[in-house]
Structure formats: structure tokens, C-alpha cells
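Ticket #4471: structure output looks truncated?

Reporter: J.K.
Steps to reproduce: submitted the chain below (391 residues) through the standard prediction queue, then opened the result file.
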Amino acid sequence: MSNGDGGPLPIVLENFSTDPETPNAGKNVTLYFSFKNETNSDITCQEIAIDLNPGDTPENLCTDQAVQDSIITPSHPGSWDFKHAFDKNKNVHYLSLTPHNSRHPVLGPGDSLNVKVTVKVSDKLRSDDLTTTIITVTEHIGDARPSQNIPLAKCPAGTVFDSFRADPPDKVLVRQGEHLQLSWSCDPIGFDKGATPGKPYYTLTIDYDQLAGPMDITDLNDDGAGAYTGPGESHSLTLSHTTLFILTLTLWDKTHQQKRTHTLTTLVTVQPTDVDLDNLSIDYTASILTDPHLITTTGNHTATTDGLLLCTVRGEHSGIVVKVTGPGEQEVDYAINTSTADPYNDPTQFTGRRMVLPIARDSNVSISSPESDGTYRAAWYPLGTGTLAKQ
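Returned output as attached by the reporter:
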């Protein structure tokens, strides 16, 4: 963040926001300031002055009396005084942040200073255009007086831009692929919807990672509220992963040049769920083909998830038999051996040194090695989060 002269501020105004997003004339607004020392050295600051631009014109945020009545709530790393002060040169009140003892460093590298100010917005507005005001932050560090101006749009009483969320609100947690609707409240009084020649107007856009860029959804906003169910004519919004949505209200003046933006965000979480791919069923988070689990014992086993069973044999007279009983199915026997011919003439019997069997979850699997001259090896590759457990 830089000051009006283009140089860096020693103590950076890292973040500034308001509640509500659109300050209403005649109503209270809460201003949030977050300052941070982003240098590698301690900073001794005699004062941080916040000028709320009091006065009696539409361009003033509030009256001088409102500054005196404002409520300051600090959150800080050291000992600071927060008070209402008076500027003799401007003949107005402002907010003063000063350390108890400025002879010692008050902000170390990376330290932050957070301040919350609640003040009543003046009820004066320009009737023919976008009304803006300026808040000025000045730092007194030694002989330096760097300052920064923060533009802020004032809106008529009753202006609303909030409540951006999944609809209904309990949809903040959805299942994969579940249809979703987002809703909001947006009533920028005094601004027409969409570009309007010769009049102040507003536009509304939405953005999230499934779009190539922000999408104009101004036409979806009616009677002070709107809803979004997805792009295109199908209006189908489904999520495969937790997604951040950004809703931006842009206020344009009648010249179509100057603009002020307000942004709301909401997060929709996709809960871990089953993934169904034909006959494949995976519970919760799927770990596809991770490190195999070696099956070191013969006998009966239970598949606690879907998976692949890889069996190999070695030796001139080696073999292995796997009997699989799927849920609600008859037992099927599979076998491999190292003979040169297939003595069984059966499609479930294989001549060779390996076979791979897909195993459904909850199947019973029996492994035996009737050929004793060689050795065998069996490995379980889960397609979910379960094992081939010995019974």
C-alpha cells in the first residue's frame, strides 16, 4: 500500500472492510482497519490518525458529532491508546491511535494492529449521481507524515447487499453432484439494473473456479434479491469439490466511467460420499491403487471394500486357487498353475504365472495353494479404504 506521494507506507494498511458492505445514509456502519509492519525492523510510531472526513455535505461520511460519538474497539499486540482527538487546523475531530510510550518500538516485524470503529453515516446524499466519500489514514513516524486515502461509497437508506449463501442455508454442505442454488439480497437504491444511458446503474457478477471468468448475472436480480442455479440454459449447478463463490456488485455513475465495487463470498463444502461407477462402490475418500497389502495366509478372507486381487506363482509345479463368493452370488473358483496345458478346460482356470481378479466389497475370498512344489504370492489393491481381512 502506498501513500499519496507514491512512496510506501512504513505501516501498511493491510486490509479495510465495512459492515454492511454498502454503508447506508443515516445508519451505523462498522469500519475495520488492519495495520501491519511489513518491514524487517521495529517501528516506533507516534500516532496513526484516522480522519473519517466529517462535515455537512454529501461528500462527508459523517458529522463531526458522529466522530465524537463513534465507538472504537481495538485489538493490538502492545500498549496503545485509542481516543477521540481534535484537529485544530481543520477544526474537526478525528480518531487517534498512540502508543503508551513512543520511546520504545511499538510494532515489530510482522506485528499487526486491528481497529474496529462504529460510526453513524450522515444522511446527506447527491441526488443525481454516485455519492462517494474519502477516509484518510495518516502515520506520524518521526518527521514523516505519510497518508493514504480510502474511497467509500455512500448509499441511500434501505440499500442492501448481503445474505449471499446457499439456499436453503443448510445446503452449505452438499453431496457430490447434488443440485445447488445460491441466493442473495441486493437492492442498490438509486441505481438502475444494467447499463442505463444518463443514469447511475449497477451490474452484478458471479465467479468461481468452474467458470472461465466472472459471469454477468445482473438480470437474475429482481425486487432486491436474486438466485443463481448455474450457467447456461440448463441452469444446473452441481459441485464435485468444495467451492468458493464470489459475488460482486459494481456501482457505475451516469458517465459509465467511475465505479465502486462491493464483494461478498460464500463457501459451499462438498461432503465426502460414495462414488458409484457401474458396479464399483467406494465409501468416503477413495484411495485408488495405493500400495498393495500382501496376503500372507491362506484360508478365508472378507473384502471390506472393492479391490483387485493379484496372484502370482513361481516354480514348475505351482498353483493357487481363489474361491470368491460375492454378495448374494454363488461361489466361483479361479485358479492358476504353471502347467503347459489347461487341465480343467474351464474359463475360470488359467495357465500361466499370474491372474488379477476384481473383488466386490463384502465378498468372501478363500485362498489355497494345492500345488506344493512352488511358491505363490497374493497382493490386495484396494479401490477404497478397506482391506482383505482374514476371517
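Triage note (M.O.): checked the attachment and the full C-alpha cell line is present. The helical segments are 64-69.
Status: closed, working as intended.
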